[in-house]
Every structure is written in C-alpha cells, then in structure tokens.
Amino acid sequence: AVKNHEFPDEPDTATAEMLYQQLHNHFGAIAPLSDEAIEVIKNILDSGEYSDVFQRCHQGNILRGMRLPVSWLEKYASEALESLPVERKDPLDWGEPVLITPMTYSPAGNFGNVSSWTANWKEARRFTTKWSSNTVPVILHSDCRSGYFMQTRGFKRFEGGRYKKEFGISKLNPNAHENEILLFGDCIVTAVEVNATKRDIIRMTS
Questions:
Q1: Around Cβ 151, how many Cβ atoms within 10 Å?
Q2: How far is CA 97 from CA 1, 15, 179, 184, in A?
Q3: Do 58 and 139 form a contact (C-beta atoms < 8 A)?
Q4: What contacts 148, CB < 8 A, 6 or more positions away?
Q5: Rounded to whole angstroms, how far apart are CA atoms 192 and 118?
Q6: pLDDT attached to residue 95
Q7: Could you tell me where the beta strands, DSSP code E, fall in the chain?
Q8: What's the mean pLDDT in 67-72?
Q9: Which residues are 189's β-sheet partners?
Q10: Are the CB atoms for 190 and 156 separated by under 8 Å?
Q11: Distance between alpha carbon 9 and the CA centroid of its chain, in Å?
C-alpha cells in the first residue's frame, strides 16, 4: 500500500508542522493538544477543507470507557446503580446501557480540554480494564451531535517523510487501530454501562 508522507499543505507550513507535532503528542500520550492547535483544527473542520483528513463526527452513538469512583455514579448515574444485579455469573456481561438524567461531561484529565471517545464498544471496554482502587468500569454513552467530535482515521496514513527525518516521528498516529474520536470541550452523556454488582458497590462503600 502506498503511504502518503505529506501532511495537508497549510498556507503557513509552520502551522502544518505545529499540528503534526501536536497531534503526534496527543496520539502518543506524550502531551495534551495546545489551545492554539485546537483552534486551528476547529477552523479547518469548520471550513470543510482537507475533509479527507479532518473529519467531524456529526451523528451516531459514541462511547468513552473509564474507571470511575462510586461517588461519581451516585451523583450522576444513580439509575445505573439501582439497576445493577446482585451478582453476575459472567464478568464479561455488562448488561444493557441504562438511561440516566442527561449530564454534561467535561474533560478533566491529563489532556486538557480534549478527551478520547470511540464508536467501537470493545475499544471503549479496553479503557476500563486498567485497575485502580475504589473505581468501577464504566462506559459513557453520548451522541456526536451533542459535542465537537473529530474522527482520527484520516490521520492513519501519515508516516515517514520529512517529519521522520526532521522530527523523529515515524507515524503520526501509531495507535490508529483504536479508532479514536476526539472530543473538544463538553458533550452530553445520556446512558452508562457499569460492570459491577450491587455486592461490589456495597463492599466498596461500607
């Protein structure tokens, strides 16, 4: 397969270089996107230019897998806690998504005003499996219409070229298989899946 090495040609090459480095830092979990990079990306998305690469997600169910404390569920998703089974024979059985009173999700992690989402349930689940104390696996459900979401599959083909020679970046998005979708700012969460039992919750809160 032929790989395209060159990034979309911005009028200002310095801008293209900045975006390439910033996006690589994000995809590689090296550093968050800067406010400047986010504004440039939004401007490109709004303009419709380079739409084969910069693609906004306009509709469809979208997921974010996380580990969250019970206190978060008590505050924002009490409906899900009430729906949990007393015990579950199969730990891989998450049950059905539970509708909650719609709540605003705001990024609050290490990546500033950007958060990672996916349309792939298995990828979302994978981000819930890293154990941390006093948390439970949760998959948030939103819709692309409720926030400023961008597909990343268009960046998959960029590798090598002068960015490898000059900046040491072999691939722009080394984890393209994750089918990541970026959210800039807030969105509305309307349902959650929680992989826990009532006994788990009691054990954690007693």
A1: 18
A2: 39, 42, 21, 24
A3: no
A4: 42, 56, 183, 184, 185
A5: 14
A6: 86
A7: 55-57, 61-69, 98-105, 114-118, 135-143, 148-151, 180-184, 187-194
A8: 94
A9: 103, 142
A10: no
A11: 26
